[in-house]
Each structure stands twice: as C-alpha cells, then as structure tokens.
Design goal:
With 472 residues, the protein is an alpha/beta fold. It folds into 3 domains: 2-60 and 167-235 and 333-373, 3-Layer(bba) Sandwich (FAD/NAD(P)-binding domain), CATH 3.50.50.60; 106-160 and 237-330, D-Amino Acid Oxidase, subunit A, domain 2 (D-Amino Acid Oxidase, Chain A, domain 2), CATH 3.30.9; 399-471. The chain has 12 helices and 23 strands. A hairpin with a 4-residue loop joins strand 20 and strand 21. The structure holds flavin-adenine dinucleotide (FAD).
Length: 472
C-alpha cells in the first residue's frame, strides 16, 4: 500500500526506470477518490494525487451532507441520471462499508400561495426524474410531521427517500479501498504543469509523474487544469455556501430535512439533521472570485439566522457548535461538465457543483467507461479489497457503548473527547489507519474528536498529545 506525503514521487529521483502509471487521477475529493476506487477493480497502475495533505480536504469536507434522490434535478440531464444512479450505489455501499446514512426523508415546505402552487409541479418533475414517491401534504398533517415548524407553513411536498450521510467517511472509504486495492495515493502533490505526450508528464514540486491516461477531478480548479491541457470550455466560479451547526440539544426539534421550495428568489436555505446528531442551517449562495474564500461572514450568518427563525423559530435560540463554508464549483451551466478527450487520453470531470457527494460512485463508473472508450485497456475485473469504516453516526452503535468491545480492549472505554464521546482506542485506530490524518482537523473528520460543543476546549491538549505521540 502506497500513501506518500513527501519525498520524490515513484518514477522520479532515485527511481527513474519505473514504467508510467496507466491512469492518474488529479484531485482526491469525493469524486476523484471514487474514480480511483473504480479503476482499482482492474489490473492497472493507478495514481491518485492531491495538492492537499489529506483526501477530501476541499469542497468534499464542507457540504450539507444530503444523499439526494435527484427528484428535483433537470430532467434528462447527465446530472439527473448520475445522481439517481449514484444514490442507489452509495446507499448499498454505505451498508457494506459502515458509512452512516439515515433516510429521514425531506419536506419541501411552502410558506405562501406561490410556493404551494409550485408543489404539484415539483412532484411532476420528480416523476420525470423517475422518482415516484413524492406526496403533497396539507398544513394540518405537516404540523403533525414537524410540530416545531414556524407559523404560516401552508403545506409541503414529502420526499421520503432523501437521506443524510457522513461525507467524511464516504470520501475516506473510497480512498482507503482504492489504496488497499493497489492505487498509489500521493498527497501534498500539486500538479503545476502538464507536458502532453505518451506518457503525459505531470510536473509537481515532488518530481515529474508520468501517466498514459489522465483524469481531471480537480474540483474548483478543474478549469485551470483543463487549460493546461489546452481546453477553455468552462470557468469555475466558486459559489460559497455558509452553514451553521447547532448543538445536539437542537436535534429533537426537527425530524426531516426541511427544504425550501425553489423560486424567484433563489434556492433558499434548509434545515437538516446531521448523522452526528446536530442540526444544520444553510447554505447561503454567494458567487465569488476567490477560490479560497471559505470563511464565514457576519452578513451571511445573520441572513441564515433570519431565514432559520421563520422555518424553525426555536432552532435559532439553541447554541451554535460551529460555522463553516464550502465552495460549489459553479460553471454557469445547469449540468456537470464531464468531457472525454480521447485523442489526449484525458477526461475532464468538471462542474460537479452541488450533488457530487451523492453522484460520486455513478460519476466514477461513467468516467471509467469514458476512459475505456478512449482506449484504456481495462482487462478483467477483480474484487476490491474489503473495507469496514469506523462508525461516526449517532444512530448506530459507537465503541463507548459496546461493553464487550471495551472488555476486550479497554482503550475503547477511555473517553478523550467527552462532547462527542470519542475514545482513545478510536483515535489510536485512526492514527494507524491506511490513510492516517496529517492534521488534527483530519483526525476530527475520522473520529469526531474536537468536533463537539466545546470545539476542543476540554480535550484539545489530550487529542494533540496522542496525535503527536503517533507522529513520533
Ligand atoms: C455548501 C455546499 C453544500 C453541498 N451539499 C451537498 C449535498 O448535500 N449533497 C451532495 O451530494 N453534494 C453536495 N455538495 C456538493 C459536493 O460537496 C461536491 O459536488 C463534491 O464535494 C465535489 O467533489 P470533488 O471531488 O469534485 O471536488 P473537491 O472535493 O473540491 O476535490 C478536488 C480536489 O482537487 C485538488 N486539486 C485541485 N487542483 C489540483 C492540482 N492542480 N493538483 C492536485 N490536486 C488538485 C484539491 O486539493 C481538492 O482536494 C455541496 C457543496 C457545497 C459547497
């Protein structure tokens, strides 16, 4: 198993005689990791590279974490097809690997006549997207379904298949399975230039990586990488989504994902439970120029609170655990920008804006198909190495609750992070895992340690000590 974060890349420096990779995937977000995992089914030499020191460290770590049904996608679009297929695939994969998912269902709440009138149209759109389970709900039933909803809700469209999922475990599961099945993961490895040829030469600060086929899964920077290959088909404009995470005491206030009815004034914000037992309010939608602008702003948070007060008045009185923001890779088009360039043995996976977590596994299958059409010899399929991920979900058993496990290994009974009930054993396991975290934030995404209401105030020193001990 190869995971590198420093030093010369294989095939460079002291290792120049090595043959080129068959395929290199640039970008280890949820999409790139899914593509690498799909490629790992075949006897190919595959590299997955990322500029960051961890997998899933870009947009994939900061989203709303909803596993969409695709009921509201643009009918007939590639995105509609891949979201629908991706949802089915990810639901099955989550069961197999232990990614926490809760199918809590969604309610699109109408607050005025115009929104109420839009509900049957949204139901018809869902039918066109092959989703047949929507149902219009009257005001009285809505009150029963969501007793804490603010006054004035007129009705809703129920979408029972919408689910919440752990985005961190999803990306990590794909990457872990890819690495265990033979993919080389090179982190801290930004592709700065591409010298086209057969093989292509990807220039990175850690040497020149040679590859016959190339997949661009660079998220917000997919346009820049595309330009290095001579393509100027789209520009990524980051669309920031700010979110507020409310404390676990708020969890009992809401039973479903409360979605806004899209309308003239944009998409609006949602209220959604998380698999960690918190409640999310957001996201905003702000078009920016800066692809690094993941900060939260006073105006953004104030606007979320104002909208949240109407949806679920008691929510905004609850304590806030954290705020964060993610950047959607908007391209000005209502569809993904997935393009094969067979002459260059190159596939662009761009514009994966707001549904990429859901669609990731279907995008991966589609991209591998495009690579094969472009001349990549896949050969026979083999079974992937099995993975079972540690459970971060509140609805499923956690190690601190498992007396048998604690009896066998007392480290699972020694809590380090008390807010999130994370044990010393879980932190130890994460630090020794196939893709160990390089930072405390990476450790948080693998264990939830320091992610609770005190944000590490109480446990920060103990978590850091264990982290530093493992670094040697
Ligand atoms: C606010 C918000 C809410 C969302 N909610 C949902 C949701 O509820 N459900 C859902 O399904 N989707 C949702 N999404 C969308 C989803 O998060 C994205 O579609 C998905 O994370 C995109 O993944 P990616 O792998 O394409 O990009 P990223 O995760 O951004 O990964 C791209 C990677 O490429 C690397 N990279 C870039 N340039 C280079 C280079 N030159 N060399 C090496 N590496 C490079 C980056 O470091 C990065 O790690 C949401 C997005 C946002 C912002």
């Amino acid at each position: 198993m190869t995971v590198t974060r420093s030093g010369p890349l294989p095939g460079t420096g002291t290792d120049p005689g090595r043959p080129p990779y068959d395929v290199t995937v640039v970008g280890a977000g949820v999409v790139g990791c899914a593509v690498a995992r799909e490629l790992a089914r075949h006897r190919l030499k595959v590299a997955l590279v990322d500029a960051s020191g961890d997998v899933g460290d870009g947009t994939s770590k900061a989203n709303t974490a909803i596993l969409h049904t695709g009921f509201d996608a643009v009918p007939g679009s590639l995105e509609a097809r891949l979201v629908r297929d991706g949802q089915r695939r990810l639901l099955a994969y989550a069961v197999e690997t232990g990614i926490p998912v809760e199918t809590v269902g969604a309610l699109l709440v109408a607050w005025d006549e115009e929104q109420l009138a839009a509900l049957p149209k949204l139901a018809a759109k869902a039918e066109r997207n092959a989703y047949h389970e929507t149902r219009c709900v009257g005001a009285a039933e809505l009150k029963e379904l969501e007793p804490r909803l603010g006054p004035g809700a007129r009705g809703a469209l129920s979408v029972p298949g919408e689910a919440i999922v752990c985005p961190w475990t999803t990306t990590l599961a794909f990457a872990t399975q890819a690495v265990r099945s033979g993919v080389d993961l090179h982190l801290d490895c930004r592709v700065e230039k591409v010298r086209q040829g057969d093989p292509h030469r990807l220039v990175t600060p850690r040497g020149v990586l040679r590859t016959r086929h190339l997949v661009n899964a660079a998220g917000l920077h997919a346009d820049a990488l595309d330009a290095l290959l001579g393509h100027h088909d789209f520009t990524v404009t980051p669309r920031r989504g700010q979110l507020i995470v409310y404390d676990k005491f708020a969890r009992s206030l809401v039973r479903h994902i409360l979605l806004p009815v899209p309308g003239r004034l944009g998409k609006g914000v949602l209220v959604a439970p998380t698999v960690y037992g918190n409640v999310l309010l957001g996201p905003t939608a702000e078009d920016l120029d800066d692809k690094t602008a993941t900060g939260s702003t006073a105006e953004g948070l104030a606007s979320l609170r104002a909208q949240g007060r109407r949806i679920l008045p008691e929510l905004v009185e609850e304590e806030v655990t954290a705020v964060y923001a993610g950047l959607r890779a908007a391209t000005g088009q209502d569809d993904y920008r997935i393009t094969a360039h067979p002459g260059q043995r190159y596939v662009t996976v761009g514009g994966i804006r707001s549904t990429g977590l859901t669609a990731s596994l279907a995008i991966a299958a589609h991209v591998v198909g495009l690579l094969a059409d472009g001349g990549l010899e896949l050969g026979p399929e083999r079974a992937l190495a099995p993975v079972r991920m540690p459970n971060l979900g509140e609805a499923f058993p956690r190690p601190y609750e498992d007396a048998g496990l604690i009896a066998r290994d007392p480290a699972y009974g020694r809590l380090v992070c008390h807010c999130e009930r994370v044990s010393r054993g879980e932190i130890r396991d994460a630090l020794a895992s196939t893709i160990p975290p390089a930072t405390l934030d990476g450790l948080r995404r693998r264990t939830r340690a320091r992610g609770g209401r005190c944000q590490g105030f109480a446990c920060g020193a103990a978590v850091r000590a264990q982290f530093e001990e493992a670094q040697g």
